[in-house]
Amino acid sequence: MKRREMVSAILAALLLFISGCIVAERPGGRRSESYYYYPDHEIYFYPRVAEYYWFERGDWRHGPKPPPRFVLRDRDRVRIDTDHEPHNDHDRYRKSHPPGRQDRDERRDDRKDDRR
Q1: Which residues does 19 contact at the CB level (< 8 Å), separation at least 6?
Q2: Model pLDDT, residue 63
Q3: Between residues 15 and 38, which one has the greater pLDDT?
Q4: How far, in Å, are 47, 62, 66 from residue 54 at the CA level?
Q5: How many angstroms separate the most distant Cα atoms in the chain?
Q6: Distances from the Cα of 16 to the Cαs of 1, 4, 6, 8, 48, in angstroms?
Q7: CB-count burial class (<10 Å; 0-12, 13-18, 19+) for 1
Q8: Beta-carbon contacts of residue 77 (< 8 Å; ≥ 6 apart)
Q9: Which residues of 37-56 are buried (b: 16+ CB within 10 A; e: fewer)?
Q10: pTM of structure
Q11: Tens digits of per-residue pLDDT, 40-59?
């Protein structure tokens, strides 16, 4: 009787495998998304959910618009491609994109040239 049960289990597993019902999980299953960082104001924009994130009074705040005291310009932003919310790794992004850098426009122009 045990042999019959084992053969049945093997056949069932084989049928599931052949039918494609078994899904293998890929390593690093998270996908990268694009975010925008405004270094001069230390604000992030998450396009997928249309939310801005900024640090205020010791906490990260978020909303559909940044506070009115901030004037954000597309030319002053940096695109970040990552598989996690970048504000959770803010120290790293602040170091790699310090506020007040004048070469953002030049880098953007270089990227446009690279696409041609």
Answers
A1: none
A2: 96
A3: 38
A4: 15, 6, 8
A5: 78
A6: 23, 18, 15, 12, 36
A7: exposed
A8: 36, 37, 38, 45, 104
A9: bbbbbbbbbbeeeeebbbee
A10: 0.62
A11: 999 999 999 999 999 999 99
What tokens does 55 get? 């640090």
Q: What is the DSSP track for the chain?
A: -HHHHHHHHHHHHHHHHHHT---PPPTT-PPPEEEEEETTTTEEEETTTTEEEEEETTEEEEESS--TT----GGG-EEEEESS-GGGGHHHHHHHS-TT-S-HHHHHHHHHHHH-
For residues 33 and 19, give the distance between their C-alpha atoms in angstroms, rounded to a whole number. 32
55 phi, psi to nearest 5 deg: -95, 130
